[in-house]
Design brief:
Elements lengths: L6 H8 L11 E4 L16 H6 L5 H10 L3 H6 L7 H4 E4 L4 E4 L4 E2 L7 E2 L3 E4 L7 H10 L8 H4 L1 E2 L2 E2 L3 H7 L7 H13 L2 H14 L5 H24 L8 H19 L15 H12 L4 H11 L5 H15 L8
Parallel strand pairs: 1-6
Antiparallel strand pairs: 2-3, 4-5, 7-8
Helix pairs in contact: 6-8, 9-10, 9-11, 10-11, 10-12, 11-12
């Protein structure tokens, strides 16, 4: 199938002029956790691939910074994204090699600078540790290992998030603190729990558990009131069981919003009853109004065109027969 070409574009094609160009060049840079490289294998090389982790631009950046020569010492002054300006990535040998052309470095012989840009692959904040690893890579020059990135002032942290916090790379949670403080004065415990769930799932505070510890009484107040009413005793105080019940309610909100458990947000996991652990997903699947869904089907099915009706019938038959398949 052809397309219309204007006279200007036609003459450029006829005279073999370049149609487009990219300047400056862009080098994609891998981002992954330790031993988190993508591994491609076949039946013949599966064992070899399992024992020999593939080299990436990130692991070889660490290797480059470990070298004692002038290039390694210079690499230790660079952050990850600046490496392609002075080094080229050899795809066959999987190594960073010093550039041989470009603008010479004013004080170091053999170092040349080009306009090439390093582009780190985007990491979503939901991939928490990988996101904080990326944050460290764009701020910490010359890392020699993953552990190096988790080390601040001689102290090795367990997580990249803790290292980011120690380096003061994370935003202050004061804004979310003030938001919850305001809600605690005017909102019900149920509304505060909903607000807390939204903050954690969409705003990614750096110290979620600190916010929970500060406002857990406000989020558990209705549970305390219910227990006092049941026992006809106003002297009952907050207990770990009440906080656990509040955490269960908050986790249910998290699952509805982001389909992730509470501990994904660096929060304590609630102790659920054994039956609840088994039936949580089943309850979510069974909470639909079958009557209203049947009405929607009855009203919508006659509106399907012929091709849509064929696909609809195939899918419904496969579901009714409990048979899997690929339908396009």
């Amino acid at each position: 199938m052809g397309r219309y070409i204007s006279s200007n574009e036609a003459i450029w094609h006829i005279l073999s002029f370049p149609i487009h160009e990219r300047d400056p060049a862009v080098q994609h840079l891998a981002i992954h956790l330790e031993n988190g490289q993508r591994v491609y294998f076949t039946e013949e090389n599966v064992l070899q691939r399992a024992f020999e982790a593939p080299k990436t631009t990130l692991t070889e950046f660490f290797t480059l910074c470990q070298k004692p020569d002038v290039f390694g010492q210079f690499a230790k002054t660079l952050v990850y994204g600046d490496v392609p300006r002075y080094f080229t990535w050899n795809k066959s040998s999987k190594k960073w090699e010093p550039r041989k052309q470009g603008k010479p470095h004013p004080s170091i012989t053999g170092i040349f600078k080009a306009k090439t840009l390093g582009r780190l692959y985007t990491v979503h904040p939901k991939q928490r540790e990988c996101f904080y690893l990326c944050l460290l890579l764009v701020n910490v020059p010359g890392p020699t290992s993953f552990e190096f990135l988790r080390t601040v002032n001689g102290r090795v942290f367990n997580t990249y998030q803790d290292a980011c916090r120690e380096l003061q790379l994370l935003e202050d949670d004061n804004h979310w603190d003030l938001t919850l403080a305001d809600a605690a004065l005017t909102s019900t415990p149920n509304n505060i729990r909903q607000l807390f769930a939204i903050i954690l799932t969409t705003c990614y505070p750096s110290q979620a558990q600190t916010l929970w510890e500060k406002y857990k009484n406000c989020m558990t107040e209705d549970i305390l009131h219910r227990i006092r009413q049941i026992n006809q005793c106003q002297n009952i105080d907050y207990t770990p069981e009440m906080y656990n019940e509040a955490l269960v309610l908050i986790e249910d909100l998290y699952v509805l919003i982001s389909n992730l458990p509470l501990n994904h947000y660096d929060m304590p996991s609630p102790n659920r009853p054994a039956t609840d652990l088994v039936d949580t997903d089943l309850q979510r699947e069974n909470q639909y109004d079958h009557g209203s869904l049947a009405t929607i089907i009855m009203n919508s099915e006659p509106l399907l065109i012929a091709e849509q009706k064929i696909i609809y019938d195939r899918i419904t038959l496969a579901v009714a027969a409990e048979q899997g398949g690929f339908l396009f």
